[in-house]
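Severity: low
Component: inverse-folding endpoint
Summary: output formatting inconsistent between runs
Steps to reproduce: submit the following structure tokens with default settings.
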């Protein structure tokens, strides 16, 4: 089975969203992450965007962050051997653990 890595549109928006985070334009970044997720949350880039979006939400809405991160982990289960997602899996688990402690 070929991995669903995502559309070119998703990839461009993902890169742009991370540039916006670096510039501390969090609202615009959140909007782009949501757009990526809406296109296809189960694509690999959709999973990565969900983790990034969930991380941003930890600052403002922990309950929503938990839901987004749990969905990301569930969606990443479709790609058990994709090393590209290893960091995202670990980060999502770390964020969920931090939310549980809070």
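Observed output (run 2 of 3):
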């Amino acid at each position: 089975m070929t991995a669903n890595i995502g559309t070119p549109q998703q990839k461009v928006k993902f890169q742009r969203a991370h540039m916006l985070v670096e510039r501390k334009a969090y609202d615009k970044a959140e909007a782009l992450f949501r757009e990526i997720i809406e296109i296809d949350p189960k694509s690999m880039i959709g999973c990565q965007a969900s983790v990034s979006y969930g991380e941003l939400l930890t600052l403002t809405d922990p309950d929503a962050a938990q839901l987004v991160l749990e969905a990301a982990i569930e969606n990443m289960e479709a790609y058990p051997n994709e090393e590209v997602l290893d960091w995202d899996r670990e980060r999502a688990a770390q964020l969920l653990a931090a939310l549980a402690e809070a």
